[in-house]
């Protein structure tokens, strides 16, 4: 997220009218950075942090597929939606994207998809944080005296942090379920 608190989205398409349209559609809830080529997209990603990306598959000078492969090779794990005129085929099975939209796309579809990507990304972060903290607590509980733990301010802070992380993960999960992703997220309870 940027300093203004808005998630940052990368929109890549060789048609500037489309990236301008995506930017207008998403401007109320997201900071949108646009690129019109694979090279420009990779330059932006090298210098900025993104919460999600929209990639066109076919562009002169480099494809969205190549950009996606390079993003993953550089360990950028933010969610990506392919927004393209290319009908999906079995070639997409091995591609590490999170969603796929076939053009033409509408405003609501783009807004819903990008919002969902950002929520899924935050859910992953919250879930990762929860499991890391819960594991620390489990290690301490397995190796330390219960009375010593109960008297430890650090342990009490850790327990509170676990509870907070679980609450944040559950809230993100609930938001995902509202968007129709029932059955795709594990129950933390």
Automatic annotation (TrEMBL):
Residues 8-118 form the Response regulatory domain. InterPro entries: Bact_response_regulator (IPR050595), CheY-like_superfamily (IPR011006), HalX_domain (IPR013971), Sig_transdc_resp-reg_receiver (IPR001789). This is Response regulator with chey-like receiver, aaa-type ATPase, and DNA-binding domains. PANTHER family: RESPONSE REGULATORY DOMAIN-CONTAINING PROTEIN (PTHR44591:SF3), STRESS RESPONSE REGULATOR PROTEIN 1 (PTHR44591). The keyword Cell cycle does not apply. One of its GO terms (molecular function) is DNA binding. The modification 4-aspartylphosphate is found at residue 56. Keywords: Phosphoprotein. One of its GO terms (biological process) is phosphorelay signal transduction system. The keyword Protease does not apply. It comes from the Archaea.
